[in-house]
Structure formats: C-alpha cells, structure tokens
Amino acid sequence: MPDYGHPLRFGSFITPRNRPVSRPADLALLSEEHGLDLVTFQDHPYQPQFHDTWTLLAWVAARTERIALAGNVLNLPLRQPAVLARAAASLDLLTGGRVRLGIGAGGFWDAIAAMGGKRLTPAESVDALREAIEVMRGIWNTDDTGLLRAGGMHHRVDGAKRGPAPAHPIPIWVGAYKKRMLELTGTVADGWLPSMPYLKPGDITRGNAIIDAAAKAAGRDPREIERLLNITPQESVEDIVSLALDEGISTFILAGDDPRLLERFGRDVAPAVREAVERGRARRGTATVRPARVKARSSRVPGIDYAGIPDSLADRALEPGDPGYARYTAGYLRGGAPALVLRPRTVAEVQDAVRFAARNRDVPLGIFSAGHGISGRSLNNGGIVIDVGALNAVEVLDAESGRVRIGPGARWLDVARELTPHGLAITSGDHGGVGVGGLATAGGVGLLARSHGLTIDHLRSVDVVLADGTLAHASAEENPDLFWAVRGAGANFGVAVSFEFEAAHVGKVGFAQLVFDATDTAGFVQRWGATLEAADRRVTGEIILGPGQGGRRFAQAILVVESDDPDTIVELLQPFADIAPLMQQSVVLTTYDEVIGFAVTDDEQHGFGEPHSRSGMVEHLTPEFAKGVAEILDARASYFFAIRALGGKVADVPADATAWGWRRANFTIGAFGTRNSGLDERWDTLLLPHMEGLYLSFETSRGPEVVARAFPPAHLARLRELKHRYDPTGLFRDNFFIDPAERGADTGVAAGVPA
Fold first, then answer.
1. CA nearest 141: which of 200, 98, 86, 99?
2. How many Å separate Cα 27 from the centre of its chain?
3. What pLDDT shows up at residue 429?
4. Percent of the chain at pLDDT exceeding 70
5. Which phi and psi angles does 590 have, rounded to 5°?
6. Are residues 241 and 209 in the same domain?
7. CA-CA distance, 12 to 32, in Å (whole number)?
8. pTM of the model
9. What pLDDT, on the 0 to 100 scale, is given for residue 177?
10. CATH code where residue 380 lies
C-alpha cells in the first residue's frame, strides 16, 4: 500500500488502572516528558478496577501542557453521543485544542448490557456508530445556526441546540476490523485506529483498500483519513518504518505501562523512525500531505504551502469547510474568506506562524485578535490569517503601581473586568468588544482620554514577533525606536504578543447618555466643541449624528466623568445640558467596565460587507467645520457621524514621543457612508481643508495618500526608516502599508503599493 504522506506521530496507550491511583496520570506525564505527541487510555466503563476514562482524560489534561489526549477507544454504547460531543468540545476548549476522539462500537456486550447499555447486533453496531458520528459533528457545527435534528434508530437528537464549538476540528478515529465498519470509516470518519495484536498478516493492506474504496465512493480523498495503529513493544524500528512507508500508517501508539519502554519509545524509537521515513520518502518522492477534506483541498490557493504548515499549528489550522471556519468570514463590519487560518496558542507558535507567512508572502496576511476593527484588515480573501485570540491572559503584576500584563487576544471588556476589582482602568476605546492587540498599537481613543490620555500612553513595554520570526522586547530602554513605532503604527512592525501597561487608579465614574435635538446641526456641533474644550479634563465625551428624518435630527451623546461624587458629576455635566434641548437623559454612577460593556454581547460578529469610513483630526469645531458636517448629513452622505474628544492629558504628551503624532487635536472625526453616497466628495471639499491628520482605526481607504495624512511628515520619514530596518520586504503590508525607505529592487513590492 502506498505511503499517504501524513506527518508522523507517536503516542502511548495506557491502562487506566485505579491502583495505584495516580499511576495512569503519572505515565501520561512521562509520555509528555519523553516527547510523545499523544497519550491515550483504554475505555471499559464496566470495569471497576479502572478509572473512568473521561474523568481521567480531564485530570491528565489539567496536569499536562502540550500532549494530545484521546480515549482508545471510547465505548460508545455507554456514552451518549450528544453528551460526549459537548464533553469533548468543552475539554478541547479548556486545553486549547488537545482532544482527539477515538470511538468504538462496543465489544463486551454482556458487560455493556449489565451496565444498562443496549445489546446490538454487528449490523446494528455499525448503524449506531454512523448515527453517533452524525450527532457529534452536528453538535460541534455551530456554523449552522438551526436546531440539530440528526441520528436515527439508536442515537437521535430532535431539536437540540448546537455547541459548544471545539477549539479545533476534533478528529474522530474509529477502531474497526470488519468490512462494514471499515467502509463506515472510509465514508465518514477521520481516522482508522486498529490494534496490532488483533490483526492478521495482510489485514492492514486489506483494510486500507476497503477504506480507500469507500472514501472514493463517498466523494472523499482517501488522504483525508489518518491511519493510526496501536503497537506492542515487540515492533522494531524497522517494523515501524515499513508500516509507515509500505502500509500508510502515520501514528504509532505504544501499548504498555512500563515507564522504561515509554522513555525508550520517545527518546530513541520515534527519532529513528522519523529519520528513516524522511529518507525513504525523499527517495520515493513522497510529499508530506496533511489530512484535509475535499472541500478544503478544492479551495486551496496557489502561493500557500499547505504541506509546510508547522506541526505546532497544523492541528488547529482551519480551511474553508472546517468547523469553526465561519468565524473568520465575518468581523464587526467587514467580511472575508481567508484560505488558511492559523491559531497559535503560545508566543513560540506565533513565531512559527510568522515564519510560515514569510515563506508564503504572495498572499495577503491578516492579524486577528477580536475581529472588531473598522479599518484594520484582520480578515482577507484568499490569504493567511493569524489569530492571536488564544493569547488573552490579563495579569495584574502590581496593583499599587498599576502594572499589568495583557495578551493581544484579550478584549478590552475582559481587561476592564479584571482591573476594576483592583480600582484600576486603562482608557481603551468606547466598546469593550475591541481586541487589545489592534487598539494598543494604533493609538487608543477612548472614554477616559481627556483624563488619562491614549491607550498607548499607558504602554510601558511590548513583546513583538518581527517579520523574520524573532521575538523583540521593546521599551523606553530596550529597542526604543521599535517602542516608538509600535505606539501608533504597530501593525507595520510585527505581531504584538504581550503588552505591559501602567494602569490608572480609577474608581467609580459618572456615565451619562444624552439625546439632544440637533436640528440646528451646525450650531449644535459648534457649541458642543466649545463646551467640551472648556470642560474639566475629568470629562470625556463623544457624539453620534445621523441624517435625521421628518426635518429633525438628534444627537446621541456619551459622557464619562471621572468622579465618584454625584454632586461633582452633575456640576461638570451641567454645561452640556445647556447646549441644546434634551430629549432623553440618563446619568448613573458606575464602574468603567460597565461603561465599555453596555453595548457588548457574546454573540458572534456578523459583518460581511466592505465598510466605507473616513477619518480626520481637528483642533477646533469651527463654524466652517460645523457647517460642513451639517451639509454632509443633510445630503445623507453619512449615516453615522461621530465626533470623539481628545485634548486634556492627550495633549500633555510631546508630539514626537510616539508614532501617533497629532497631540494638539481636540477631536477625532469618523464618518460612515457608502461608495455611492457622495461621502468622499463632500468630505474632501467640506471638511478636509479644516483637518490635520487622521486616525487609522476609522479610515477604510489604504492608499499611500492616506498613510501620508495619518502621520506628520517627520514621523512618517522616521517610520519608513524603521520599516526598512524591521520589515524591509514588507511582510506586514496589508494594513496601512508604510513603504520602507531605501527600498531595494529585490523586495518584490512596488514602492508605495501594497502587494
């Protein structure tokens, strides 16, 4: 039988005896220590001398860090499939994608019946297994939002809610020997898992042939199905190499509970087999092929070496058609269809992902933290997406000084909830669903800006994976140029994997939501600007305006007052109440996490379109500027026009201290329209002459003229020099590309144009 070219894996097959009570878990730890990829346990729920296998898997999962986990094989007649699916998904989420699912139809029917299980004939067992796989996959398929109705006579759900989705596509391996079960494996399973002691000579060849024929008949590529084998200590290195090269086995699981044999298997046997198989494949010209469904293979794009995906990332990588892929087709406002999603769990895996992207740089590259960005290209079409969402830890290092460490995949609401009990906060935009990574490298205009500055003003150090895959620590003392650049232009310089902030001590705050009659739009905007500029810097606010209807227009205002004294809050808000007639008002004393969490839900994002937004900075809301705002809204060129406050402590920072250089601006402007609404024309003629600079987080155009307006000239010149130093070939080019200075002719990227 030809070699399927699957990557080699090595594991242990441990008996779950409960005397001594910790021995199975200890052997699992040894398996990880000796470099094995997988630890598995027998499953005989009717055996009182054994631990319950699923309980044991959960215990071992908590005690290990890297190794994959599976039952070998789980006794399906005594494990209800829908419940098993939820249990497997939960453990997969808790372990970051380490669960595999080996299942069997049952064999010891007297014992199964004694435990309350239903005795089945061989034919019924096959049908039951098929139904169970359908149910489990249906539970995991949260991309389908409808209720689940699946199964048949033996296992059935009728209107069950789906979920949770596992952290990665959990493979289902079937322990099979007879023809019908082998055909089922080829038709619907992800792997074949027999045991050597139960096989006769020629059984692997015959089994592969049956599986392959069934796969082809079902429209599958036989390479979708992994071939695993439980082996004994009697199999030599030569035997295992032959099984890999001649029989297509790629995962070898050693049965036995002798720690010395486990050590030898991981230390000596596995490396020797890998080396010999690599030589054999090179002689035969066999390429490494990772199991993938037909739909995924048909969607693969040129320019991506799918076979070269690092082992550290392969199991959690997603392609079109994989469960969980739909999450990466919709963001907050923008949709996409990436060809490959890499989901690293550690800094080292982020490095692997960046190096892989560098080897496959002919396609777009997106960095995804929460997918909430308006302007950022965290999603793309036909490219690679690196999702850093698993790096989401929030750690308070020193509550007194406010020192905290935060991962890029955390949401700001999660950060606020962690900091609030310590009396701390970091200004962080106005929506808690935003991911830390994007905002903390772009600037961070939020509802504490006037009292505490921008998000980047609280950043004390950052760890960045650079374009060559190396890890750099940047602070005022170490790599200060990189630290300067990351604060405002971070998307151009690498993937941030850890931030250290100095949070501010913030207690309760006043949170006001006001609705004004803004029919006199020009007058309202001008008065709002003057009032906010004159306000105590403890007050930060924003307004949102729309086209209006029926000859009237309303403005929704959000104001935060950093004070826990109700009288002070009322006093500081009173000037705003005099701007225009108030239609609605709500003022509460609350905490910062409640402020940024008021509009946040845990629902999946559903933005599939291509937003069109313009951004700018302005020092004063002058009569001319306010008139331009009114004309844009009257023409219905913008359906969402936001004016956010700056000034205060933002202006205390010298303009050249960070890449974000527009410190004298008192307001940042963001307007949403459509390509055909006339927003661009009116923006350029009515507002742009009054503006200086723009905030990239709210700008959707990406040309070099936009980048030129985003940074003061001296800042941009310095950024171009630093880009040449840290990313001379423009790997990070798909999110407001800064053209490297002194670009060489061999870069393959035209000057000023994202590739």
1. 86
2. 33
3. 85
4. 96
5. -150, -170
6. yes
7. 10
8. 0.86
9. 95
10. 3.30.465.10
Strands 554-561 and 539-545 come out as antiparallel
Domain span at residue 445? 302-505+715-755
Question: How many distinct structural domains can be found in the chain?
Answer: 3
**Stretch 201-218: mean pLDDT:** 96
Confidence of residue 747 (pLDDT cuts 50, 70, 90): very low
Query: Which residue type does 236 have?
Result: S
HSE, CB side, 13 Å, CA atoms: give it for residue 429: 28
Q: Where residue 628 sits, what CATH number does that domain have?
A: 3.40.462.20
Q: Which residue has the tokens 């939960």?
A: 90
pLDDT tier for residue 324 given thresholds of 50, 70 and 90: confident
How far apart are the C-alpha atoms of 22 and 41, rounded to whole Å? 14
Angle at Cα 181 formed by Cα 179 and Cα 186, nearest 5°? 95
Residues 648 and 679: their CA atoms lie apart, in Å, by 30
CB-CB contact of 139 with 156 (8 Å): no
> What local confidence, expressed as pLDDT, does residue 266 receive?
97
SS3 at position 322: coil
Banded model confidence at residue 753, pLDDT cuts 50, 70, 90 = very low
CA distance 418 to 421: 7
d(Cα 496, Cα 464) in Å, to the nearest integer? 4
Band (pLDDT 50/70/90 cuts) for residue 63 is very high
What lies within 8 Å, CB to CB, of 340 at 6+ separation is 304, 306, 309, 317, 318, 319, 383, 384, 385
Q: What is the pLDDT of residues 688-705, one digit of tens each?
A: 999 999 999 989 988 899
Residue 344's nearest CA partner among 490, 167, 467 is 167
- Averaged pLDDT score across all residues of the chain: 93
Q: Are 167 and 93 in contact (CB under 8 A)?
A: yes
Q: What's the pLDDT at 652?
A: 97
Report the percent of the chain where pLDDT is more than 90: 86
CA distances 559 to 431, 455, 525, 543, Å, are 14, 18, 15, 9
CA-CA distance, 35 to 72, in Å (whole number)?
20
Which DSSP helix (H) or strand (E) runs through 475?
strand 471-475
What 466-472 contacts at long range (C-beta under 8 Å, 24+ apart), as own/partner pairs, is: 466/354, 466/493, 466/494, 466/726, 466/727, 467/354, 467/358, 467/494, 467/726, 467/727, 467/729, 467/731, 467/732, 468/355, 468/358, 469/351, 469/352, 469/354, 469/355, 469/358, 470/351, 471/347, 471/351, 471/497
Distance between CA 608 and CA 600 in Å, rounded?
A: 19
Residues with Cβ within 8 Å of residue 639, at least 6 apart in sequence: 546, 547, 672, 673, 677
Q: Are 241 and 276 in contact, with CB atoms under 8 Å apart?
A: yes
Q: How confident is the model at residue 299, as a pLDDT?
A: 78
- Same domain for 333 and 466? yes
pLDDT score for 600: 72
Per mean pLDDT, which range of 95-99, 153-157, 330-334, 343-347 is the poorest? 330-334
Q: Which amino acid is at 45?
A: P
pLDDT of residue 606: 66
**Domain identity same for 694 and 720:** no
- Would you state the pLDDT for residue 453? 97
Q: Does residue 458 lie in a domain region?
A: yes
What per-residue string of b and e applies to 156-175 under the rule 16 or more CB within 10 Å gives b? ebeebebeebbbbbbbbbbb
**CA 498/CA 388 separation, integer angstroms:** 11
643 contacts 665 by C-beta, under 8 angstroms:
no
CA atoms within 13 A on the CB side of 450: 25
Structure tokens at 744: 């060489």
Task: Take residue 393 and report the two structure tokens written for it.
Answer: 């830890």
User: Are residue 651 and residue 736 in the same domain, yes or no?
Assistant: no
| 428 in any annotated domain | yes
Domain termination residue (choose one: 701, 732, 747) = 701
The backbone region for 424, taken as left when phi is positive above 0, alpha when psi lies in -120 to 50, beta otherwise, is: beta
Contact 290, 314 (CB under 8 A): yes
Whole-number Å distance between alpha carbons of 105 and 74: 9
The length of the chain in residues reads: 755
